[in-house]
Amino acid sequence: MRATITKIDTLKRGNGAIFQRVYFKTESGQFAVTDLCPTFRNFTRWRPLLQIGTEVDNLLVVRTESLPPNVRNASKLIHIDADSRVVGVPQPKRAKQFVFPFFKK
After folding, report:
1. Neighbours of 78 (CB within 10 A)
2. DSSP 48
3. Which of 15, 53, 59, 102 lies deepest, with the highest CB count within 10 Å?
């Protein structure tokens, strides 16, 4: 599955572990989350990609859960496996736009 990182929470403590929750929006428009522990080995795969707007691929789904009907655009929340072999999707490079010297300020 391919998705774009939309939000990254600060480190939190819960269930005896310190973790960071990462939110995604998939290509199909659904929302997804995963929890990453900086002390776990799989974090080294995620570290270079943890920036808002980064598009990632090879995400595996662990489970989906239904959202309550009072949530706007309620559908299913997808939980991503933190052990996914995640890779960044390169963004196409845009050519530099030429600015005529007489338009410069």
Report:
1. 21
2. G
3. 59
Beta carbons within 8 Å of 14's beta carbon, 6+ residues apart: none
At 71, which amino acid appears? V
Q: Per-domain residue ranges for the chain?
A: 3-89
Provide the whole-model pTM.
0.77
Tokens of 45: 């795969």
Cβ-Cβ contacts under 8 Å for 44 (sequence gap 6 or more) = none
What digits encode the pLDDT tens for the residues 73-105? 556 788 999 999 999 988 877 777 777 776 555
The values of phi and psi at residue 78, to 5°, are -95, 135
